[in-house]
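Q: I'm writing up a methods section and want to include an example of the input and output format. Could you take the sequence below and give the corresponding predicted structure tokens, formatted cleanly so I can copy it straight into the document?
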Amino acid sequence: MGSRMMNCIAVMGACWLCLLLPAASVSGQPLPDFGVIQNHDSDVLYGYADGATNTNYINNLLTYMNNGAIGTQMFSVGLGSDILHYPTQAGSNIGWRTTPLDNDPTWASRVTIGKSWVAQNYDPIRAAGNAVKAMGDYFIPSYRMNDDHFVTDPLNLPITGEFWINNQDKTIGTSPVAGYDYSNLLDFSFQQVRDYRMSIINESIDRFADIMDGYELDFNRVQIFFTNAAEAAANAHHITSMVQQVRQKLDQVQTQTGRPQYLFVRVPPAMENNTWSGLQVDQWIAQGIVDVVLPASLQTLTHDMPIDDFMAIAQTAGSHTKVVPSLYPRTQHNGWKFVARPTATIYQGEPQYQVADADLHRGALSNYRYMGADTFQMYNYGPPWIGTWYEVAQDMANPEPTLGKNRVFAITPGYFNDSEDTYEYAKQLPDTLTGLQTKDYTLLIGDDIQRMIRERPDDVMLRLGLNNASSTRLMTVWVNGHRFHTGNIAGGYYTTNATLRGNGPQAYLHITVGDLLALQQGENTIRVRYDNLSGSVQITDLQLGIFGADDPDAGLPKRTMRQPQINMLKQVYYDGNGPTMNYTINNRTNNGYDIGQGGVYITGQVSSYSQSYTHAAGFIFDQAAYYPTVEGELESIDYQFWMGKTSASRPTSFVSLLLVQNDKHYALSNPVSFENGDPLTFMTLTGSSLSALDFFEEKPNADGYVLDPYSHPDFSASGAPIYVGFMLSRSGNPNVAGNDQPYTDLDDFIVTFNSVVPPPPQPGDANGDGLVNLSDLQVLGDHWMSTTATWAQGDFTGEGAVTLADLQILADNWGFGVGSDVALAEALLRAGIDIPEPASMVMLGLGIFLTTRRLRH
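A: Here is the clean output for your methods example:
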């Protein structure tokens, strides 16, 4: 293509780029990329009484916490709503009065430091703001609109302000939430209360106008402003008026400084919670008053806040407002880290109280990404700023936070009195099932399940926290209609022994989700039935863990590797001739050899000593190993595993690899074995380039086992999930010493799946239909300028971005498989546009497409 055409492309590309710029706010400014937003607890500022030393402490602290993912930093301007950190005329400073608790260990340090700051006229908020700006981040002061930390003992606590002391008649009087005493909170139906709050907001905006980039109104500490829901509805317009005043104040600062000012509001986690609180967030969004809405639960990491409701309001109204989930690093009062294959004692000792680890965070991040979030707020993450938070911040900045990593999806358990559905959306758990009762629970999974399958996780487990349970209880559990457990729960039951707080679990039930196709992106129905006639069981929490995943784009071989344990193997068939043989799987902590450390041993016990016997049994790992419908047609399988026996007097034989597909069992026809007296005590078995024709179906037979040479597994792309395992064959006479108890040691299973290599895709064919036409042009347009795109999204260069280079490839291959440009030509003719040369036509088509898309939005 000539330089003239390339210049044309460049000009058109620049024009289309303008069409793709973010929507502008009411003041005409585009919303920037705020990065991960961190709202610091105000306690982080309290380092030293000397101002200069404390400034150095703040600089060092923020430098330590800065890891590149965080782009916006917020600081609460006070200890609560009334005791402010900076020298104030509108509110109060700590030490404004002497209280009986000034020397209490809980408060003494802050009171001493705060009084020293007042004496020095020191401002730690400005010190923090200067440090943030020096780092190149956005600096946002934050104000807690009705903080409740003082309400338990307002006459004696040092964080009670002078306004409250002088206006005790302006409190709400009666708590609107049973079980929690919020009666001492200020009532926003009084004009004096609203004016007092606005005086602090205006003072702090004026004070930091020269360095700040906006302001956050935190309505979430705590979300109560009126006596009850009726009063909230009647007075909600007053709070809206306050928000409008703040918007106007920020617009004035923007005019004065020439620097954009953004209004953030941290609010309750669901629209109905905001309505109950008297917060007209839907109007704030629809009218474009606020730039960023941050839905937030009060004290726990949530996985299922309905943030999509907020986004739907913005989309319907055509508002610029961004919705950013605010996450908190706690979990329920009692809880242990989710371990895929626990030992009997893994849940003993003290639980990890209130600590939400990186795995739990990733599940939440995936869910909110699925609902449309593009960044997050970290609220109260430290001090101390632990290494986990570095990892969490990086995951928050990652468009695919779970890819190749462990993650846990959870039904958010109740923390406070969430069941009332007041300022917190009602939680599904804890919940109690009585005799023969069935209940459904909704678990949100943000991950694309087919991508999850391609990550080849080692283990996918469902974990239920239980109270009032025992291993003999009977339960049935389904996932989206697929039954994964029925009967007594002994096989996956693990007790805890800690002193419980709140609704912590006394035990955990682990259930393997063997077939990942049972899961679905979005809402999943977990059905639980309590199968006992009497009694009850309480479900305290419910989680889905994905463990041992690999990045499917990292060039790793498609293989499954297993270190066998008793709780990952199951017997899938048994047949034979002679006395019954009972098989038992046992864990072996160390088998005594350089390889195969650990693993399992399978023992058999013949029920009679007077008859010869021939038996066969099949065992498989409970997690499907390959999904042809997702991972592609199989060409062949390679395998390697270790087997041994530690007693020459006891017989063992082994019939190689076993595959299970559609509940049919397929074994190799060439057994490898060693018998009584064989000097060989261990070996590594291998096989390579095994096709479907090498595996024969094992069918029930009265004489041990029989292989059908005409029935094979389906390796085609339409095949069902494939499980792997092994077949054991036993034969002997129990009258011979040791023959009554044959056994086999097994360890180190590695099975490699060699897929049929698909032909390279046709350049420009995004949807894989073998054509390069308008459909591919639309795909490219939908992802124009994306920086995280795949081939299927229009990235034909493999750079991860959709740019003019990809458009050029599509143009160069336009019409492949269709032979002409008829479709686009007809569209242009109907629009009254002259038909240009083919490449120009593609460029023009994309311009028309992007323009119409922008107009629709």
